[in-house]
Design brief:
This protein has one domain (about 15-75). It has two helices and two strands; from the N terminus they run βαβα. The protein has a two-stranded parallel ribbon. The chain has about 80 residues and is mainly α. The radius of gyration is 14 Å and the shape is elongated. It starts with 10 loop residues before the first strand and ends with a helix.
Length: about 80
Amino acid sequence: MSKPVPERPVFDAHLHIIDPRFPLIENDGCLPPTFTVEQYRERTNGRRPGAWAHPDGSRFAEAPPPNGPASALRHG
């Protein structure tokens, strides 16, 4: 059983936004399923993290633009 999300700011240390608008390249047979910003917000009951890590996407078919999936968490 999962624990409730704390009422204080959280740091999301491991998060993958897989948005189909930004195609990925299969890597050794692995292609992760879609997981959108909307799904993330639903999963976290709409709470926004106080901070998160934002590594560069190395598996994009093209370089992700500055307004790619992660920017929706910052600005959406």
